[in-house]
Amino acid sequence: MGLRERKKVQTRNALIDAALELFLTRGYEATTIDQIAARVDVSPRTFFRYFSSKEDVALSAPADSQDIFLAALAARPETESPYTALSQAMRTMVATLRGKEPEDAARFMKARQLVEETPALLAGQMRLLMENEQRLVAEVARRQGTDSGDLLPQFVVSVFTGLGMICYHSGTQGLDVMAERLDDVLTLADRSLRPGWDLATADTSPSATD
Amino acid sequence: MGLRERKKVQTRNALIDAALELFLTRGYEATTIDQIAARVDVSPRTFFRYFSSKEDVALSAPADSQDIFLAALAARPETESPYTALSQAMRTMVATLRGKEPEDAARFMKARQLVEETPALLAGQMRLLMENEQRLVAEVARRQGTDSGDLLPQFVVSVFTGLGMICYHSGTQGLDVMAERLDDVLTLADRSLRPGWDLATADTSPSATD
DNA sequence: TAATTTATGTCACCTCATGACAGATGACAA
DNA sequence: TTGTCATCTGTCATGAGGTGACATAAATTA
Question: Which residues does chain A have with pLDDT short of 70?
Answer without folding.
Answer: 202-210
